[in-house]
User: Fold these one by one.
Assistant:
Number 1:
Amino acid sequence: MAKVGVGLHAVPDRRAAQAGRKQVFLHEPTDAPAGMPSAPDLIVMRGRWTILAVLFAARAAMAVQFQSIAAIAPELGKTLNANLADIGVLIGLYFAPGIALALPGGAIGRRFGDKATVLAGLVMMLAGEALLCISTSWSVQIAGRLIAGIGGVLLNVLMTKMMVDWFAGRQIATAMAIFINSWPLGIALTLVALPLIQAEFGIAGAQIAVMALIGAALALVGLFYRPPGQPAAPVSAQDARLGLPAVWAVLLAGLIWAFYNVGFAMIFSFAPSMLVERGWSTAAAGSAVSIVLWLAALSVPLGGYLADRAGSRNTLLAASCLAFAALIVLLWRGSPVPPTLVALGLVCGLPAGSIMSLPARVLAPATRALGMGLFYTVYYATMLIAPWLGGRLALWTGHAGAALGLGSAALMACPMLLWGFERWLLVQARTAPRAS
């Protein structure tokens, strides 16, 4: 199958698939001579990695804002007079707008421009955090998380597209691995730094720190981002249609990605509270759990590297998800915390590359916007419900660790969902031409 790059944003090219002709990449030269790159190419390369750094910072700021509720949950619960289930609602509300906006997010970017839409999203994130800071009213807290979540959806959908625009055809696997790592690194930074800031300056001080980081990301995108070149040619409505087998395959891929992230979310949302229940301080618990996220920054690209070279990506995906699930159970049931967290960090990132490559096996370039909209809709819907459900389980059992059991169960479901994905992929192959 001819395609540009590897993973979620791999770009199949029909022209390259026809008659074995030379592959053509959007925005990228295809006939450059071998050897050292020319001076214009070096300028483009430097610009490309600068853009990656800018988008990395913006996505890390989004991760910090998402995690900011869970990082100071014990103290925030006292301030708001909220229980664990209520905190779970606030965490999940960040993803609620994605259910409605993931599908039209790409169209919004086309209408107003990618950069302008991302800047608007960052402004909404800043406004939402300001609402959280100025009032402890529960209704204001909900409104602030929803407004910030709208901005986060626009960033999540459009910045992935912007990454493909810049890296299609050259080093996209490496670039996407780095870009993906902005999320665990942002969450790890939050778990380490925000409880310390809160202990020194209070809840408002922690929220102001989040606002400052979002403001810095807003300045970076405004000053340094530029589009890479001419846009792709428009496609017809017929070419942009998704067949029923492809729809089901994309929905199942979205569920796999969502359930995988549920496993992650239960760790960094409820494991700190579980450790506090066992006598740890809030700062120590956050720092300990952040080990998982710091090590995930290594295991995510390692997993992508192994997936590209493994004889079966599906085997790697299934085995690493099951190992991830088993380690969560061990942490929940009282195994020694530091070694279990280290093992979790080394294992948890391994399935990411394989999972993110699934949509590329289904979607042609003309169907990518619609297909990825469906993919993100499933993801956001699941991530809206999961933190609330985790909080309810913790409240029902009286122990925050019960939420980790939900994360483990979600991960154990991934191999079965993968089996369903492969079945629909076979149906698609029999009923319509493949994406390449």
Number 2:
Amino acid sequence: MAKRIQLASTGGPEVLEFVDFTPADPAPGEVRVRNQAVGLNFIDIYVRTGLYPVPGLPSGLGTEGAGVVDAVGEGVTHLRVGDRVAYAQGPLGAYGELHTLPAEKVVSLPEGVDVETAAASMLKGLTVQYLLRQTYPLQGGETILFHAAAGGVGSIACQWAKALGVRLIGTVSSPEKAALAEKNGAWATIDYTQENVVERVRELTQGVMCDVVYDSVGKDTWEMSLDCLKKRGLMVSFGNASGPVEGVNIGILNQKGSLFVTRPSLNGYADTRERLEAMSEELFAMLETGKIKVDIAQRFALADAAKAQQALAGRHTTGSTILVP
């Protein structure tokens, strides 16, 4: 027996239960990981509320964790029992002491990356990798707008953009979060509770506006984000913190300057074992060289996952948050 967070119905934080369960033995091509740290992400809230449907209820929760391989299924050759590993994809169930998942979704950790750092950065770091290195391959010299720049993804994006020589303008909700984003390498910050974002972007760029806008907020910032782009700029909508973007007239992209828009996801980029390995290697290199430092600003016991999600949804967190089994 082991412990995990489970939901029998979708809804508020109260639907999360800390229960006993029997973890599955690995089938062929699978491994079982004994989690030592679990990542907390907005996508977990989308699953809990029902925005992202689960295959069936009751269900586990979470897709990101790190620890050691506990058991190996038939046919798995790249991992052994005792290996230090991390993952950010696969079936729900990372909010648990043990998690069984396809071995192809699990990567080995290099010596220079500890399990807490891995759990705090796998999903967020791989997200930043595909956003900045693949969705729009930044070369250096571009100006970009990144919403929620003091959050887990934003904190990594600020550092990665600076390393690439990119001017990142980050939106934040307080002076403290502005200071954090700037410490992490943001070229400039905008407090959207006090400033008009579009006007401030126009001022900072001397009217040129941004090459790319990275928007994880969704409904509340959609049109404002479009207005921050230069002609033929790219809108990257990669999250729904305020709710999904709906009812869009595609003609608005023409009206605002022949804009481009994409709605990417990690699963759309890390879609093969080879691509996942390559993306992870680049992330781990950034961590090992110190170009990216992960700020684990909050730690919650696994049993307190509901409290952790409330803090994240209420924008009471900075940097990354992990759950500790």
